[in-house]
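Its record is set out here:
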Amino acid sequence: MAIVSFPNLEVCADDFLSLPTRLYADDPKYIPPVKKDIRQWLNHSPASGATAHFLAYQGGVAVGRVSAFANDQLRDTDDTRLGTIGLFECVDDYSVARELFDAAISWLRDSHGLTCVWGPMNGDIWHGYRLMTRGFDQEPFVGEPYNKPYYPHLFEQFGFKVKQEWDSVEIEGADLLHKMIERGRQRLDLLKAKGYRLETWNPKRRTELIHTLYLVLCESYGRFLGYTPISQTEFEWIFEQLEPALDPELFLLCWSPDGACTGFAVAFPDLAEPVRAMRGNSDLFARLRFLAHHRRAHRLNFYIGGVTPREEAKGSGLGRAGFYYIINRGLEKGYTNLLLTLRLKGNKAHGLAARSGVVPQREYALYEYLYER
């Protein structure tokens, strides 16, 4: 076996990008990422800092890959400097994973002095992170961490420890959803009476609304583990990847009586099947396959939402009100199932589903490795 390192994706793109296609060839649930988007991100993004890519070869065939990212802005809660490894894919062979981990972590240590490593994380939380640890029998959603079931064991066998965990829960049936959101309707009516205002997506004001979403989202997410600042240009690029799936009525910005944007919520129709049909490509035929499979979804993904720290301190219940608005609109549009995605374990938002007797069906983890001299 040979481990080969590459300073940029251009010199190893074919082997690097085609490996997942081979690994998941027999997995009907797998949703291939668009290769063009990965290439474009790795070649243009300044946010992730210095990067090195590693490929493992056996008999001239790529059998594993990983990327190491040295992001100067990334810190732990105690201000420890962090490196990350991401874009990990590997055959079910610990010896291959071990050599890849060793190569990536050694590069972070020797070239950048980083001895605390998180993974999988593609440089920062904006470009994909976490492993799925439970829920492999469920139907994936677009944007969900999805990997081979043996990946968590490979990480743990090497010495990675769980740093933080998340889950997702699917709620089935319109009647249950109506019952779950009822208190939110009352909260929304109360806030409107106090002068709060809601605004949905308006393509004519696209630039202004993206800027507002960028500001309120960054302020709301500033307390997240692993948060790093992101430029508006980079944020706009990320938004453009999601924009084709955007339903204007399922995009919400919330304004307080003093005119400040203090909350947001966005849900997307479930597009797993049409995106899967693209097979990781973006050419004309891939787009036609997307359109051919673009049937009306029955499942709605509550993807992102939040309120600013100042609004949260008020205890206004704006989060519950925004959640009600989005889910109620989804019900009016005919969606019968709801996915509450990637919820931090222990977050108070878990109470909504728990009180209805629904338990998470999927779990995810971010891992940490500490190099000991």
